[in-house]
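Action item from last meeting closed. Structure (247 res):
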């Protein structure tokens, strides 16, 4: 019986591999590589977690510096307003609300400026703004530069030119004239951006204007909330807000 079992054992591939130095070396190498891979995965996980923690601390510093959060982590009025915004850059949008930029604009200028906060297609044309729009745009860019500077000081990797470039004035003049009553055909001829893209931006702009009105109500500024609503009424008309574009 023992001899029979020994014969079966000799035929076993695992038993044979243990006595084959070349094959055993390959198995040993694979086991070592598996162990090393597990160690590297653990290190990577720790590195990513540490990186996430550092970034979270830096972002908290930015929020504290901008007045969204207190030193003890309490969400302040600015932070509550920012919580209402999710279709644009919350920091810049709320900064413009609190620094008085929005307050000094009429309903047409307001709509045009907020369009810069909405993602817009690039254009090959040189944007030439009328005087009532140039100054609000400058204020927006100054506020964006301030946020970029504070972010870098806190340790975040923010490229100022890239950050500023994300707020394009490509459709400022288009929505300014639409707000004043121009037809869709007239405003479409003012830019090389496709008509469908203009309508898509208009829908997003409508959503952002509604969020801004709610944010103004949250901070108790009913006058500004009403101005956002009145400005948005000049947007919501015509073919851009038809139930079907085939009507």
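Sequence:
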């Amino acid at each position: 019986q023992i001899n029979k079992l020994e014969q079966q054992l000799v035929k076993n591939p695992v038993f044979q591999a243990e006595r084959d130095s070349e094959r055993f070396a390959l198995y040993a190498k694979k086991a070592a590589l598996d162990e090393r891979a597990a160690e590297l995965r653990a290190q990577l996980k720790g590195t990513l977690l540490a990186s996430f923690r550092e970034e979270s601390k830096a972002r908290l510093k930015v929020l504290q510096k901008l007045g969204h959060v207190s030193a003890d982590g309490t969400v302040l009025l600015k932070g509550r307003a920012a919580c209402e915004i999710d279709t644009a850059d919350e920091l810049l949008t709320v900064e413009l609300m609190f620094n008085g930029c929005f307050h000094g604009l009429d309903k047409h200028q307001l709509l045009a400026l907020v369009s810069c906060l909405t993602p817009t297609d690039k254009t090959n044309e040189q944007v030439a703004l009328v005087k009532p729009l140039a100054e609000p745009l400058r204020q927006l860019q100054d506020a964006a530069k301030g946020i970029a500077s504070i972010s870098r000081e806190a340790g975040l990797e923010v490229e100022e030119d890239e950050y500023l470039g994300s707020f394009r004035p490509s459709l400022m003049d288009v929505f300014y004239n639409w707000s004043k009553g121009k037809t869709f055909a007239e405003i479409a001829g003012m830019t090389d951006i496709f008509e469908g893209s203009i309508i898509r931006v208009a829908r997003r702009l409508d959503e952002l204007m509604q969020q801004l009105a709610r944010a103004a109500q949250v901070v108790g500024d009913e006058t500004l909330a009403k101005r956002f609503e009145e400005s948005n009424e000049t947007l919501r008309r015509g073919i851009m807000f038809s139930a079907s574009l085939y009507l």
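Note appended to the action item: The chain has twelve helices and no strands.
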